[in-house]
């Protein structure tokens, strides 16, 4: 049981390049989330999904797109990377216990945009 | 934007000391979670709280769901060097529906001097 895994672990991009971050979970969770973490700002929600085939915008969605074609995978895309997107990206999956969430996080992807 | 105020931002303590940190909001929350993040890793769930006034322990960690439902507290007793890391509070705001979305505090960075 690997939990939540993220690919790649680290990536360097040039401004304008595109890339896709992959998140996979093997816990059969319905809910999945993408966050970015910047110093002093905690974790901010980019996009989330409440089930296969569904996605919704979070707090900071601009410049990102997502897809949830399979229940176990949640992809985060950057179509045209900008230096402001340099950050650490975390994926999480969750189930609801009596309506309350318990989110489990992956190890993160460190992205540097030059 | 951020709706949780976590304090203190950082703490530098001596091994063996007790630690207290808290999270406050102007909104009502129906779930509070506390996470710990080790350097280079994703956040790990420590304690989950689901009812106002609830007091829950996990080893040397004790957390409480504030009676007003607008705050939560985390205490660590007899700190040890491996307690070093960033501690995040997170909450599910009342009225957020069955999305499982959490709002995160900015984090408390804890350093322990042996």
Summarize it.
The complex is a heterodimer of chains A (114) and B (114). Chain A is mostly beta strands and 114 residues long. Helix content of chain A is 0%, strand content 54%.
Task: Tell me what the structure shows.
- Chain A is an all-beta fold.
- Chain A has no helices and eleven strands.
- In chain A, the strands form two sheets. In chain A, strands 2, 4, 5, 6, 9, 10 and 11 form a seven-stranded mixed sheet that branches. In chain A, strands 1-3-8-7 form a four-stranded antiparallel sheet, with no helix packed on it.
- Chain A is globular, with a radius of gyration of 13 Å.
- Chain A starts with a strand and ends with a strand.
- The mean pLDDT of chain A is 95.
- Chain B is mainly beta.
- Chain B has strands at residues 5-7, 10-14, 19-24, 29-37, 44-49, 55-58, 61-65, 71-76, 85-93, 103-104, 108-113.
- The interface between A and B is medium-sized, with 31 and 29 residues.
Please name the defining characteristics of this protein.
heterodimer, A: 114 residues, four-stranded antiparallel sheet, 54% strand, globular, B: 114 residues, mainly beta, six-stranded mixed sheet, five-stranded antiparallel sheet
Task: Set down the secondary structure blueprint.
The complex is a heterodimer of chains A (114) and B (114).
Chain A: E1 4-7, E2 10-13, E3 19-25, E4 31-37, E5 43-49, E6 56-57, E7 65-67, E8 73-78, E9 87-97, E10 100-105, E11 109-113
Parallel strand pairs in A: 2-11
Antiparallel strand pairs in A: 1-3, 3-8, 4-5, 4-9, 5-6, 7-8, 9-10, 9-11
Chain B: E1 5-7, E2 10-14, E3 19-24, E4 29-37, E5 44-49, E6 55-58, E7 61-65, E8 71-76, E9 85-93, E10 103-104, E11 108-113
Parallel strand pairs in B: 2-11
Antiparallel strand pairs in B: 1-3, 3-8, 4-5, 4-9, 6-7, 7-8, 9-10, 9-11
């Amino acid at each position: 049981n690997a939990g939540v895994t993220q690919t790649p672990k680290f990536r360097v991009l040039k401004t304008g390049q595109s890339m896709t971050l992959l998140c996979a979970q093997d816990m059969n969770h319905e809910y999945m989330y993408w966050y970015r973490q910047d110093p002093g700002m905690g974790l901010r929600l980019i996009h989330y999904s409440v089930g296969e085939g569904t996605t919704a915008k979070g707090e900071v969605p601009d410049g990102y797109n997502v897809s949830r074609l399979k229940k176990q995978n949640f992809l985060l895309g950057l179509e045209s990377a900008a230096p402001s997107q340099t950050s650490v990206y975390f994926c999480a999956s969750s189930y609801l216990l009596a309506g309350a969430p318990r989110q489990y996080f992956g190890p993160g992807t460190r992205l540097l945009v030059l | 934007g951020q709706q949780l105020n976590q304090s203190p931002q950082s703490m530098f303590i001596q091994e063996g000391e007790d630690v207290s940190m808290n999270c406050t909001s102007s909104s009502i929350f129906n779930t509070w979670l506390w996470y710990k993040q080790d350097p280079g890793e994703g956040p790990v769930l420590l304690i989950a709280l689901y009812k106002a006034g609830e007091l829950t322990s996990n080893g040397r960690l004790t957390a409480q769901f504030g009676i007003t439902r607008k705050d939560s507290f985390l205490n660590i007793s007899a700190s040890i060097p491996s307690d070093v890391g960033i501690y995040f509070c997170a909450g599910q705001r009342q009225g957020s529906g069955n999305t499982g979305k959490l709002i995160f505090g900015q984090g408390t960075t804890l350093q322990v001097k042996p």
